[in-house]
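Comment thread on ticket #2218

A.B. wrote:
> Attaching the input chain for the structure job we discussed in standup.
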Amino acid sequence: MRSTPPLILSGLLAALVALSGCGRKADADRAAGASAPAGAASAPPAQNVGVVQVRQADVPITVEASGTVTALQSVDLRAQTTSTVAQVLVKDGQSVKKGELLFRFDDRAQRADLEKARAQLARDRAALGDLERQFKRAQELVAQNFVSRSALDTAQANLESGQALVKSDEAAIQAAQVTLGYNELRAPINGRVGIVSAYPGSLVQANATAAPLVNIAQLDPIGITFVVPETQLGPLLAATRAGDLEVEAITPGSARGTAAIKGRVTAVDNLVDSATGTIKVKAEFDNKAQALWPGQYLRVRVTLRTLKGVTVVPQAAIIMRGNERSVYVVGPDNTAKLVPVQVRQSMGEQAVVEGLDASAHVVMEGKQNLRPGTPLRIQASGGGGAVAASAPASGASK
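C.D. wrote:
> Ran it. Output below, let me know if you need it in another format.
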């Protein structure tokens, strides 16, 4: 039997030792890999968040609606007689005063009728004078028994008929004067004239369906009509009972920072529109600068009441889960703390809430990566660089 060479035995022993060392190293690596997640779980990494401090403020509760500017008075002027236009004394867009003469029509026929009525009155007055003398003579003759009593009655009847005829003539003169007055068309209100649609020589007719000669609209003061949801009817009526209710008009296209035009609510309609669930409201505005124009479409804002000293946070900071509302605040140990809140009023990008300390700092950006107790690395809200993690303690109000 042949023996194994010593050199071969030495090689086999070296290979066994090398394999044994590799196995121990793999076990050590697996053990290290298993222990790494446990260490990470015990110390979660800090999350970058943007925070803002809650603020205390007086918050007005407002209702915004779409409205239409309406003239408080608007009159279409039409002719009350059939004639031709003699003079047009007004221009397009002119401001006029009440009683100012605007149009004059051809009045020759009406003046002739007036003179005819006056002549008729003069004739009947002369006849009345003769009847009065006849009645006096009849009275004297009856007293002397020269005529019968019936003759006196006849004279009295003729006298009374003559008196009635004179009164009729006087009324005819008044009617002729009124008809003559229709040949002058005057402004019934103060306001601004629209586009004039009649010219000298134009034929006008006394017809209610005819096109108006011109329209006059009152511009100062001026009104705005708008509708609000019937759910706001109670607060709206309560605000009107408390005194003058202020309303603001926001004109379209106005520059940023331009002050809103302020007015007051003058009337709330007496019924709710059942088809739309809204109620009509009317407001009045001073319009000396004529910034508001009849027919203009704009937004109005009514301040119903003011919440005094309430806590205000950004809407973006509020977390909604079903009916629950909560926010993350920076805790005393600079970790995330989930605090439930109650939203009292939403107003655009801000919300009035209850349940927070006045000094609380709420997380506005990065809250989707947080869990209660997560360490925070605070950044300026809006994507600013990291700041020192030394925010004051905050939390829910007790």
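A.B. wrote:
> Thanks. Noting for the ticket: Residues 63-71+218-308 form a domain with the Elongation Factor Tu (Ef-tu); domain 3 fold (CATH 2.40.30.170).
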